[in-house]
Amino acid sequence: MFKGKARAYTNIALIKYWGKKDEALILPMNNSLSLTLDAFYTETEVIFSDTFTKDEFYLDGEQQNDKATKKISTFLDLVREKGQTTLNAKVISQNFVPTAAGLASSASGLAALAGACNEALQLGLDDTGLSRLARRGSGSACRSIYGGFVEWEKGFDDLTSYAKQISSDGFEDDLAMVFLLLNDQQKDVSSRDGMRRTVETSSFYQGWLDSLDADLAQLKQAITDKNFQSLGETMERNALKMHGTTLAANPPFTYWSPDSLRAMQAVRDLRKQGVPCYFTMDAGPNVKILVEKKHVTTVKTACSHLFSKKQVVSAQAGSGMTIIK
Ligand code: ADP
Ligand code: DP6
């Protein structure tokens, strides 16, 4: 029997990954850049044993159905190939983040699974190897191997597509992200299906790709300069552009709810009142607000007037994947 357990934190992209150029290998169309956060995470244990007759996947105490287990098995096949074993596995995972609600459970989930498998089978993967492995489970997971600011370089094949930490001279320690948990139900259109539909059908998609290099360069410069305004403006613009592409897909769709719009307006109103803060959104209705730590309380108080206190959760920069002994 071989066992491993790991914890990984979610990350939120400031420059989004939106679209694959290779569905099987999960190679992205564009580079993306994220901040790993400390409030939401996954802990996963994996056990490989010759007493198991098939793979089993337990999430939050419940055995998962065939479809969810199949996804895990496909990932485990990669791991088994690397570890030169045919043993079946039991995966026991706990999400300290709502699952499939646009809060990046796939990132923390697959990064934790990659780490646990590396430990269990003693694969000896370094961070780059782990990032490449996690990427095969879910693209954004390749960034959750690292803490702080992380860039996923799209690369051009399986070997060259992985994430790296970006040095920032501690800028991330000045920052916080306020999460507005507007809806924690599983979404109708997963990130995977949403980005595929957008790449295949959205007439706005080329515009997204064309503007990416400029957004990325500006965001990286903002990190170097520790320029919060430029960081926030670039992040917000990039998110709006990503969400714009879904409106021109066929059939069109959106991850926004009426509450998402209220939250975005609240951020704009706060800025008008002189509080620097900026929003981003992923494949779900929840809104995340980037703010300097010194303004967190102001932002949280303002949001608690619009939504319930329970719905407003703040996070700081988090660390990379860790093994739990
Ligand atoms: P999210 O916004 O939460 O990342 P996605 O639709 O992108 O939503 O991904 C959700 C999917 O990620 C789930 O359906 C499941 O396949 C996978 N996932 C989530 N949590 C875990 C976990 N702890 N272990 C393995 N896979 C997970
Ligand atoms: C909008 O990494 O969940 O959150 O690679 O298909 O598993 P798959 O998709 P996933 O997509 C994340 C999309 C996003 C943007 C981002 O995190 O960069």
Describe what this molecule looks like in 3D:
Belongs to the diphosphomevalonate decarboxylase family. The protein has about 325 residues and is an alpha+beta fold. The chain has 2 domains: about 1-170, Ribosomal Protein S5, domain 2 (2-Layer Sandwich), CATH 3.30.230.10; about 170-315, GHMP kinase, C-terminal domain (Alpha-Beta Plaits). The protein is built from 8 helices and 14 strands. Strands 1, 4, 5, 6, 7, 8, 9 and 14 form an 8-stranded mixed beta sheet that branches. The chain has a 4-stranded antiparallel beta sheet with strand order 11-12-10-13. Strand 5 (about 55-60) and strand 6 (about 60-65) form a beta hairpin. The chain is globular and about 65 Å long. The two termini are about 15 Å apart. The mean pLDDT is about 95. Bound molecules: adenosine-5'-diphosphate (ADP) and ligand DP6.
